[in-house]
């Protein structure tokens, strides 16, 4: 395989490996000290916790990927809801009633009850900001014996899918102290979170009281390694068993038998600030869109390990391409040497390269372009506050509910909690509302594509490419999950030989 000239030399991998030496040691044995046998699983994760692993933030997906926190329902491969902590459910108008699974205990030994479920859901619904999955949703929960009734202000066909979001994980009562939520020793999964060392590491042990199948591994040792070269080095050197998000730039120099490309419902998008600055002008947004050559970015930055975007929803949702129609957009105006600032982050190793490529393309079109590149934790608040003229984001489109309507609402509704383009368009709001209210099935899919078309027609977002995540699994790793939705990684079946 050809190794591109821009790749870091192997010496860089060795140096990064040296920095990681011993990173999975220091109190956490590589084998099970309890005598149960087996090896602990060493995992190198990309993004450090941003909210002390609170399930009410995006940190919830870490808890899900470590199989420590669980939800009432989960999603199958098609995005349909199936039993988890709830065994069945029925709908009556605005209310859904869930029957809870018997014999479930939290990691602190307390039992799963309707009251504990109501407590978790009520805390999530009252959080500020709300979990993204509850954007635009007024949800209440009430206990009734071994059942929980969830009611929404308007009839919502997606309640079961919403309750599958890791941000609505059910935790023991002890997890909630004032405005903080700590998942340590408070989940119901096959692994118990026992220790968190800030943004550097975490440890989990097998929970032998688990209601389901006992975990095959005695535990998990997690290190947060934002540097992509260092994560690749951890796989190459044997310092890690499972490596999340190997950068494209490192994939070619690794043993190809150790990496897996997983097509993702994740779109690399350029968000344009519609509220202020040059891109308040629709004609200049159109000029930026026309200046972008996504195919060259896919070939040059991603080495062909991505798909050029035709819309916000990619090949992970094959029905989207089948339903999509041409979108009417504004005509491009003259940039007239307008100065713009593009923000992005370093945590996804390709994004700074994407930013540099866009800078060249937009400058060629007549814009003057400045870049602001930081770690995500240090730039998210500015992006959400509209501090940039444009922002490059790698965005999961069905991460929370398995349904893209929630993502579209969060990112493009006037009151969406992740509205980086600061979009406030009545036509878009109307289309998003219709998509959210339409029952599941073909009608909903058509409404979602209509909402996507409404967003694309504003040029508030310019989709560039759909990513494939590259996961590294060491030779001895068995049954690690390769999950397009990024909800699973280490499961009860995962172990190291």
TrEMBL record:
Pfam families for the chain: SBP_bac_5 (PF00496)
Region of interest called Disordered, as start-end residue ranges on this chain: 477-497
Protein name (Swiss-Prot/TrEMBL): Putative Nickel-binding periplasmic protein
UniProt entry tagged with the keyword Mitochondrion: no
Keywords recorded for this protein, A-Z: Signal
Protein species of origin: Streptomyces afghaniensis 772
Endpoints of the signal sequence: 1-30
PROSITE patterns in the record: PROKAR_LIPOPROTEIN
InterPro entries hit by this protein: Peptide/Ni-bd (IPR030678), SBP_5 (IPR039424), SBP_5_dom (IPR000914)
CDD domains registered for this protein in UniProt: PBP2_NikA_DppA_OppA_like_3
A biological process from GO: peptide transport
Annotated GO MF terms: peptide transmembrane transporter activity
A GO CC term assigned to this protein in UniProt: periplasmic space
Domain annotation Solute-binding protein family: ranges: 82-417
Biased segments, Basic and acidic residues type: 480-497
């Amino acid at each position: 395989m050809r190794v591109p000239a821009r790749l870091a030399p192997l010496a860089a991998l060795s140096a990064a490996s040296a920095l990681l030496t011993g990173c999975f040691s220091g109190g956490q044995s590589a084998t099970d000290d309890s005598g149960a046998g087996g090896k602990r699983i060493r995992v190198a994760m990309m993004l450090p916790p941003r909210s002390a692993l609170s399930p009410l933030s995006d940190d919830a997906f870490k808890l899900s990927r470590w199989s420590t926190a669980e939800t009432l329902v989960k999603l199958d491969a098609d995005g349909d809801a199936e039993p988890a902590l709830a065994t069945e459910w029925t709908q009556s108008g605005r209310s859904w009633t869930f029957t809870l699974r018997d014999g479930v205990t939290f990691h602190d030994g307390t039992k799963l009850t309707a009251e504990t479920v109501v407590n978790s859901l009520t805390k999530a619904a009252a959080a500020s900001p709300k979990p993204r999955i509850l954007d635009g949703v007024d949800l209440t929960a009430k206990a009734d014996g071994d059942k929980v009734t969830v009611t929404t202000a308007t009839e919502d066909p997606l309640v079961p899918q919403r309750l599958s979001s890791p941000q609505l994980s059910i935790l023991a009562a002890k997890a909630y102290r004032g405005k903080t939520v700590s998942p340590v020793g408070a989940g119901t999964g096959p692994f118990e979170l026992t220790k968190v060392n800030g943004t550097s590491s975490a440890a989990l042990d097998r929970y032998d009281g688990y209601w389901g199948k006992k975990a095959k591994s005695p535990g998990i040792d997690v290190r947060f390694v934002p540097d992509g070269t260092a994560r690749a080095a951890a796989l190459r050197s044997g310092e890690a068993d499972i490596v999340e998000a190997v950068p494209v730039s490192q994939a070619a120099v690794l043993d190809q038998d150790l990496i897996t490309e997983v097509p993702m419902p994740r779109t690399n998008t350029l968000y344009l600030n519609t509220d202020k600055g040059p891109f308040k002008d629709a004609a200049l947004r159109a000029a930026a869109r026309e200046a972008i050559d996504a195919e060259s970015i896919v070939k040059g930055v991603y080495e062909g390990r991505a798909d050029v975007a035709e819309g916000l929803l990619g090949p992970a949702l094959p029905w989207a391409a089948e339903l999509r129609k041409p979108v009417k957009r504004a005509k491009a105006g003259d940039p007239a040497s307008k100065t713009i600032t593009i923000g992005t982050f370093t945590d996804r190793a390709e994004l700074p390269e994407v930013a540099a490529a866009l800078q060249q393309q937009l400058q060629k079109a007549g814009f003057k372009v400045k870049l602001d590149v930081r770690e995500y934790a240090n730039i998210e608040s500015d992006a959400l506050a509209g501090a940039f003229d444009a922002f490059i984001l790698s965005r999961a489109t069905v991460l929370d509910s398995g349904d893209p309507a929630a993502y579209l609402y969060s990112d493009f509704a006037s009151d969406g909690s992740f509205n980086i383009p600061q979009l406030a368009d009545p036509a878009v709001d109307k289309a998003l509302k219709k998509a959210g209210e339409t029952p599941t099935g073909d009608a909903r899919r058509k409404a979602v594509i209509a909402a996507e078309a409404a967003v694309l027609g504003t040029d508030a977002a310019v989709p560039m490419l759909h990513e494939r995540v590259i996961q590294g699994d060491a030779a001895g790793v068995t049954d690690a999950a390769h999950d397009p939705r990024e909800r699973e990684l280490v499961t009860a079946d995962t172990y190291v030989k």
